[in-house]
Amino acid sequence: MIEFFDALRSEQIIQYAVLAGVMASIACGVVGSYVVVRRITYLAGGVAHCTLGGMGAAQYFRVVYGIDALRPLHGALAAALFAALVIGWVSLRAKQREDTVISALWAIGMAVGVLFIARTPGNNEDLMSYLFGNILLVSRADLYVIGALDLLVVGLAILFYNKFLAVCFDQEFARLRGVSVEFYFLLLLCLTALTVVVLVTVVGLVMVIALLTLPVAIAGHFVGRLWQVMIVAALISIGLTTGGQAVSFGPDLPPGAMTIVLAGGLYLATLVVGRVRHSKRSRTARAP
Amino acid sequence: MSAPPVISTRELSFSYDREPVLEHVDFSIAERDLVCMVGPNGGGKTTLLRLMTGLIRPDRGIIEVFGTTPERSRRRIGYMPQHARLDPAFPVGVFDIVLMGRLGHGRGFGRYSSNDKQVAARTLDEVGLGDKRGASFGALSGGERQRVLVARALACEPDILLLDEPMANLDPVIQDNLYALFRQLNQRLTIIVVSHDIVFVAETFKTVVCVNRNVHMHPADELTAQRVAEVYGRRVRMVHHNHDHGPGAAS
Fold this sequence. Notes:
The structure holds two protein chains of two kinds.
Chain A: H1 2-10, H2 12-37, H3 41-64, H4 72-93, H5 98-119, H6 125-132, H7 140-159, H8 161-169, H9 171-176, H10 181-203, H11 208-219, H12 226-249, H13 255-286
Helix pairs in contact in A: 1-2, 1-12, 2-7, 2-10, 2-11, 2-12, 3-4, 3-5, 3-10, 3-11, 4-5, 4-10, 6-10, 7-10, 11-12, 11-13, 12-13
Chain B: E1 7-16, E2 19-29, E3 34-38, H1 45-53, E4 60-65, E5 77-80, H2 94-99, H3 114-126, H4 142-155, E6 160-164, H5 172-185, E7 190-194, E8 207-212, E9 214-219, H6 225-232
Parallel strand pairs in B: 3-7, 3-8, 5-6, 6-7
Antiparallel strand pairs in B: 1-2, 1-4, 8-9
Helix pairs in contact in B: 3-4
């Protein structure tokens, strides 16, 4: 732990990693709250896994055709937005078997990525970092992209707060008030896609869903308004990503995985504490 | 010549997956009527109410609200869905929900004006929940949640109120308060209330609409238990909730 804070003072890599984690956490808390209350974590999971197709393709064209400007992050961005619109469209149109179609898109997106990675010369360590994240590989250019996405996502999510709240709480009523429910649903999925891209660099696409949902679930135990959940979830998220890096630094463990284990542990702890407090309260209530 | 009806249907039919719910429905509701829609479960009450909002479209036939399509009249409709459809764990405050009735009143990005907040506070007072303004939705009882949704429908400042089972799970005192509110609101707007029970207050409602795949209308004071039984296809217990009963009167 102490080594981590020493390194944080001196090593630029660590500073970039922590900064990326903090920025990702803000988008994560805000958009994750919408995703959880609208109950579209499964759709978000589909979008997250489809990014592998984009990252694989971008890396392939970068290496094989020597397009150096193309980075996996750009591929992830394009794939996530495309997947969000397709999955959103399926969700709006499909009356039945929505989950079947989304599962298929989920797997196809990954399969495309695996094929591109297999045909990309060089070693396949990239695959591991896409799947499980490698926050220590964050470059200055990545930070700019992450920062811009963060501003865009948080800005739009706050600007349309009332409409998102109404659409998430009661879609039919919002429609009757003249709110374009389909538009806000697709916009929310696009914001989710952008958040996923930011998170993929931090924890990798497999674990995105945990970071999108667990801090919100924890925050939901303590506060009762959506905007409060957003703030608390973002703060918890910042603590988890930074804590994950700090704990994993000494023993040289993957920080993304450590972050998720911490998140899961904290979630279980709040459940247990909540249970105990609840039973204590009902016992005092029963006492004469 | 009488005023044009607020809602009218011609040969209206609707089915879910080829299972007919409503068939050849013809009726019209006059301005400032106070209507109770009754009928058995699955008889099509909620479906008929949703057709009036335009949330679903008829398979055949025509439904008009204020002389045009329900979609065009949406802004004039205040709608209250069944509260069980909503997530009680949703992190949202009572006042935020009532304010949702003010959406679509023309402000960019959905910001609420001070007028919107005044209207929301007033309607919350009207349903008797002025003191619950700062509460969370999840902390309310089922009956309180229903009244919040009635307040939200009123906050639309509608010309017609469509309420899906606002009386379910309410204790009798609060039911009476709501009935009194409906009578008062009825001076300026048309109200249609869906009721799952056939318990209704003859002195409150002017018209009773029996919905069971097709629709029969009756002036509330002419409706007999026998007539209701015909619509339901079986004998039913009907309760005339009459305030003239003394204490201990059978109901």
